[in-house]
Amino acid sequence: MNRTADIERAVGRQDVSVQTPPAHRGAASARALALAFRTLMREWRSGELGVLLLALTVAVGALTGVGFLVSRISAAVSLQASEVLAADIRLGSPQPIGEQYFQEAARRGLRTASNTGVMSVVFNGDSSQLTNIRAVTDGYPLRGTLSVANEPFAKGEPTKGIPAPGEVWPDSKLLAAIGAGLGSRLSIGAATFRVSRVLISHPDQGGGAFADLAPTLIMNAADLPATQLIQPGSRVSYSALFAGDRDRIEMFKGWLSAHKKRGERVRDVADATPQIKNAIDRAGRFLSLASLVSVLLCAIAVAMSARRYVHRHLDTVALLKTLGATRGFTLGFTVLQLAAIAIAAAIAGSALGFIAQEWLLRTIRSLLATTELPSASLVPIGIGFMTAISVLAGFALPPLLQLSRVPAVRVLRRDVGPPPPLVVLAFGPAVAVVVLLIYWVVLDWKLFFGFTMGLAGFILLLTLAGGLLVLVAGRLRGRVGVAWRYGVANLSRRRAESLVQIVAFGTGIMVLLLLGVIRGDLYRDWRRTLPADLPNYFFINIPPADRDSFVSFLNDHGGRTTRVLPMIRGRLTNINGRPVDEMRFDGGRDENFATREQNITWASELGADNHLVAGRWWSAADVGKPLVSLATEIQESLHLKLGDHLTFDIAGETVEATVASIRRVKWDSFQPNFFIVFPPGVLEDAAGTYLTSAYFKPTEARSLAQLARRFPSVSIFDIGGLLAVVRSVLDKAALAVQSVFVFTLFAGLTVLLAAVQSSRDERRFESAMLRTLGASRSTVVQGVLAEFTTLGLLSGLIAAAGASVAAYFVTTRVLDLHYTFDPWACVIGLVGGALLVAASGWLATRSVVNQPPLTTLRG
Q1: CB 488, CB 790: distance < 8 Å
Q2: Burial 10-22 (b: 16+ CB within 10 A, else e)
Q3: Does residue 337 carry a pLDDT above 90?
């Protein structure tokens, strides 16, 4: 009676028809708003909106929480990954860099530094060594730190600042090669400098495919003119370094790319190292997939909750129509209610997401390499509001349109429901929202089509399999006890409802299992990628005559070597008979692949960290044939394909070859790898050297000084600092993956709750009838548990199969990982699904069972 009184007061017992004069339309809208607010408050106090609001809040909280978390961790990852460039952006040029770049950067509030590199011979008395001299300005490095020590190959300590004027910091290899030490006087060009510290590592070493094949020495840029090293014809490289906050850097990068001169190259963290790029790309793809799954799970919960919400409002709408309300009035009344719910859920979900990511980051701050993370972006809040409105509109609009068509005669005949909706209106908005959400999150056409088709196919198979399993279960109900007979009978009696619940349960369990399997494969791949004994030293320029003795020396002094490959320099000159110099490229990496000198090798076997994506690897019969294998990076940049004819200039000789295969290289294996590989018997006559990598324990690295003296032509690269950066990046990526998985798990539980809540009214009436006819409370409870356990078993069985198949395609086609079948996923899906759904069903329906039958029957 109270609700009827509210309705009568709001409507005013007036006929709000289509012919309402314009003057009264504003009053009608005000009455609709007042009625919507009154009814909303009453339903909120009664708890009817709980599941719907919870589902929508979790959807917004999952997406905004993931957005806040990923944006902050990604910013921290990018900052740390920038260490391999010693800056956020690096502008390289063979000519002096104009002052206008530094002025523009200063105007935009960015920090700057410069690095000038020149090759020269460094003398210590009669000993000499060709050295890569780096003259740096104050502020270098802008990202990362220099590491120095008091003796060669010792453990370095981070330091701030650069060498003082008149002082230099040579690296361990240089000091060992010329027999110098702390305090020695080194002659560089026309000047002499004192060794004040030993350079152990610098941030931008090893980030450019080991382009610096000579030892390194750092000096103050103010001392460079005194050396008189830069003369006409000198080979000098100039680098301008820029760093600042992300937004300013991105804007400056665009300006720099538009104003740079020919021959100048802009590099950022994406070009820094393939190891870090691969780690960030994989983590980003997984996080996008996981956040999308969270939203879709909550969308399912919203759909089921909205369906129950609309069903409970049939009587209210019918009563409104008996009082003269039009279809537009009733539709506006319910739309206003759901709009209020959307706004409330967006605000609550955004706050929940922000609090969750802030609490999580505070909890695990000790695992991060930095104590101060960039501030959270406000973009996820806008995304949260758009998600709330779009999800609610897409999944609640069809039943809302159906609700507005409820006939007034339902007041007298309770069995009269709303007319069935049109197929387009029933599924069109939901499908459109799902498709837009998928593309909005992944922003990749290949992944978009794969995920969309896979999801549609799984739901279709799940529906067919669920219907078959419900039919089979119904035929077996006569062979079980009373409680199980009652539970299984409910499945058969409410086949449509059971099928909807199986699809909801199965989808929720499947995506949780899928993310669990993918997460495991991701972790295993990262552990395989970065084991404790990963090579931390690279050795370049090994003479062919010293190859065997060099490898023996490494093994005798505690080094664990990897494969030893030949290396020779060459340049691509023609593609299918057309000179490369006459071809136009997009610039950046594409132009770099086409015009720079490449490191080239030859090998008879395909490395374990190389995977063929096209063509075939050569056999023994192909030795000596003019074939070549390309990495995917150079193949995609130059738009090459199998069968293309390439011409190379190698050591002054013209070599022609046909593209025989395309390889995807796992660069983060830190093994010797090349973009271009020839078969044996083609390049052996050209003068080349060898390279290899090895792992040395910190206590055994001192033997490298002896190695440097015995093999003075070999260049030694300590990549321990780079490994530390990559490991830290992977730790952050793993943390983000764990965090997103927690959000997804919570979203999955919300789906279970919504699916169970959707049939509470029917269960309340059935429980009252059974107990009135003599059934005990325990029998009804056991029947409910039997029903939901059966639903969980059926859903878990289908979900485990679907997760295993989907995991194979996602790991191999999307994340480029090695798929490992996990039998525990099937066990967890079957047993966990039964237990989880049974527990959720009991928690959601215990109030139904506990309610006295007389109360239900009187209501």
Answers
A1: yes
A2: bbeeeebeeebee
A3: no
Amino acid found at 802:
G
Give the C-alpha separation, 623 to 828, whole Å: 51
Tokens coding 202: 């610098």
pLDDT over 90 for what percent of the chain?
12
Q: Please check whether residue 298 is in contact with residue 59, taking contact to mean a CB–CB distance below 8 angstroms.
A: yes
Question: Counting runs of H as helices and runs of E as strands, what totals does the chain give?
Answer: 25, 24
User: What pLDDT is attached to residue 255?
Assistant: 92
Mean pLDDT for the stretch of residues 66-85: 66
Q: Is the pLDDT of residue 15 over 50?
A: no
CA distance 653 to 729: 43
C-alpha to C-alpha distance for 101 and 504, rounded to whole angstroms: 57
Beta bridge partners of 149: 198
Query: How far apart (Å, rounded) are the C-alpha atoms in residues 276 and 26?
Result: 61
Core vs surface per residue 842-854: b (16+ CB within 10 A) or e = bebbeebbeeebe
Integer Cα distance of 557 and 702 in angstroms: 10
CA 415 to chain CA centroid, Å, is 51
Short-list 582, 535, 536, CA closest to 562: 535
Whole-Å CA distances, 631 to 637, 663, 726, 771, 812: 10, 5, 22, 72, 18
pTM of this structure: 0.56
Q: How far apart are CA 333 and CA 342, in angstroms?
A: 15
**Among the ranges given (436-450, 611-625, 667-681, 792-806), the one the predictor scored with the smallest mean pLDDT:** 436-450
Q: Are strands 627-631 and 676-678 parallel, antiparallel or unpaired?
A: antiparallel
Distance CA 502, CA 843 (A): 18
Whether the ω angle into residue 141 lies within 30 degrees of 0, i.e. cis, is yes
Please tell me the distance from the alpha carbon of residue 584 to that of residue 5, in angstroms, as a whole number.
Answer: 77
Q: What is the largest CA-CA distance in the chain?
A: 111
Q: Give how far the C-alpha of residue 681 lies from the chain's centroid of Cα atoms, to the nearest Å.
A: 43
Residue 687, Cβ neighbours under 10 Å: how many?
9
Reduced to 3 states (helix: H, G, I; strand: E, B; else coil), residue 783 is helix
Position 18 scores a pLDDT of 40
Helix (H, G, I), strand (E, B) or coil at 752: helix
Rg (CA), the chain: 35
Residues contacting residue 452 through CB under 8 Å, at least 6 positions apart: 435, 438
What does the block give as tokens for 474? Answer: 């119904």
Residue 370 has pLDDT above 60, yes or no: no
C-alpha 717/C-alpha 132 separation (Å) is: 13
In whole angstroms, give the CA distance from residue 221 to residue 163.
9
| Residue among 501, 463, 469 nearest 760 (CA) | 501
Please write down the HEC assignment for all residues of 587-612.
CCHHHHHHHCCEEEEECCCCCCCEEE
Q: How far is CA 847 from the centre of its chain?
A: 42
For residues 332 and 326, what is the distance between their CA atoms, to the nearest angstrom? 10
Beta-bridge mates of residue 663? 612, 631
Closest CA to 68 of 519, 731, 728, 740: 740
Minimal CA–CA distance to 146: which of 134, 136, 156, 138? 156
Tokens of 152: 């060669």
With contact defined as beta carbons under 8 Å apart, do 110 and 102 qualify? no
HSE-CB for 42 with a 13 A CA cutoff: 15
Hey, CA dihedral for 727, 728, 730, 734, is it positive or negative?
Answer: positive
The rounded distance, in Å, linking the Cα atoms of 228 and 817 is 52
Cα–Cα–Cα angle for 746, 851, 752, nearest 5°? 20
pLDDT attached to residue 53: 78
Enter the tokens of residue 98: 């104009």
